[in-house]
Amino acid sequence: MQQKMTAKFGISLSNRAVLFNWATMDDLIQAAKTAEESGYFDSVWVGDNLISKPRVESIVTLSAIASHTRRVKLGTICMASFPLRHPVLLAIQWASLDVLSQGRTVLAVCNGGSESFGPQFATELQAMGVQSRERVGRVIEGIKILRRLWSEERVTHEGKFYQFTDVELLPKPLQQPMPILIAANPKPGQADEATVERILRRVARHGDGWQTDATPVDTFRDRFGRIQEYAAELGRDPEQLDSCLHLYVNINDDVELAYRESLEFLAEYYGTGAITDERAKLWLAIGPPEAVIEKIQAYIDVGCKTPVLRFVSPDLEGQLQRCIAEVLPAFHGNRMPEVATG
């Protein structure tokens, strides 16, 4: 029998669902504790936006979770506000979180929403004083600044978007180097092949891994393979790059009910009509445990190292417990993993 590829699982907690009463902050913190105590989850992730999709702020949320956990890594999925945040302030905040969590953070960043995505994104960009066309440049420049501030004693920077002289940033993060993933998912019909290649090369050059969602299995295989190829061309070790997939999960023997609950969550989260059936089906792993296992395994088989599961049901605790009991053992030889104590 062919040996299954292994992966490290994450749980994605919706700090936006707090605003539409699908969960409370206490629910999220308890879910993080349950996930860690199970031994099956290696990481906890929360989403990030500012005005465009309001939520309890990501770094504040991760700080609360850090104080209630000891082992799991803590990350953003993804920091859509990255091009809106000044990198010096963000460097201090994220380094502080890394110190607070004893070196457990993973920063995943992305371009955030274009003004063409809707009026709420245009309002957010205007309020933060950022032009939509600047987002990519701010992400690249911001990553470079963070890496320097976190590793060098003093930094002077003269860039297109940011300028400062002789800055000593303290505290430094405990992790050296700090992992930074880049989230990117160019959609069919919205990005030509040249644009896709440019995006994948950006991940290979500037990121420590790739984060994505709603990506067909074959597309995931192709894109991560290309990112690794481009990284090798740059003299980087492609095996060291992470590949992180965000999946929305509803475990239910009644597939129709699972799909209805999932669509209700997506409508609350993104707005009614914002997510097409085609995109929803790519995003979702729903139905009985064996169907959820099959979908997750398909991505692991093509190179996904970090499947991150978000439960799209009003019963977060019930979903998590069922996942622990009936889904995740399939990826651990049907036995409970060892849990670190002390």
Structure notes:
- Helix 1 runs parallel beside helix 11 (316-327), helix 3 packs across helix 5 and helix 6 packs across helix 7.
- The strands form 2 sheets. An 8-stranded parallel barrel has the order 1-2-3-4-7-8-9-11, surrounded by 7 helices. Strands 5-6 form a two-stranded antiparallel sheet.
- 42% of the residues lie in helices and 18% in strands.
- The longest helix has 17 residues, at 135-151.
- Strand 1, helix 1 (25-38) and strand 2 (41-48) form a beta-alpha-beta unit.
- With 342 residues, it is of the alpha/beta class.
- The chain has a single domain (9-331), classed as TIM Barrel.
Write the SSE topology.
Blueprint: E1 9-13, H1 25-38, E2 41-48, H2 58-66, E3 73-79, H3 87-100, E4 105-109, H4 119-128, H5 135-151, E5 155-158, E6 163-167, E7 180-183, H6 193-206, E8 209-213, H7 217-233, E9 242-251, H8 255-270, H9 277-283, E10 284-287, H10 289-301, E11 306-311, H11 316-327
Parallel strand pairs: 1-2, 1-11, 2-3, 3-4, 4-7, 7-8, 8-9, 9-10, 9-11
Antiparallel strand pairs: 5-6
Helix pairs in contact: 1-11, 2-3, 3-5, 6-7, 10-11
In short:
Helix content is 42%, strand content 18%. By secondary structure, the protein is of the alpha/beta class.
Largest sheet: 8 strands, parallel, barrel
Which structural class best describes the helix and strand composition?
Answer: alpha/beta
Helix percent reads 40-55%
Strand order of the largest sheet: 1-2-3-4-7-8-9-11
Mean pLDDT: 94
Order of helices and strands: EHEHEHEHHEEEHEHEHHEHEH
Indicate the overall shape.
globular
The proportion of strand residues reads 15-25%
- Return the CATH class: Alpha Beta
Find the CATH topology: TIM Barrel
**Proper CATH architecture:** Alpha-Beta Barrel
Q: Kindly report how far apart the N and C termini lie.
A: 37 Å
Number of separate strands: 11
Report the CATH superfamily. Answer: Luciferase-like domain
How many distinct helices?
A: 11
**Radius of gyration based on Cα positions:** 19 Å
How many separate domains?
1
Enumerate the spans where pLDDT stays under 50 for 5 or more consecutive residues: 334-342
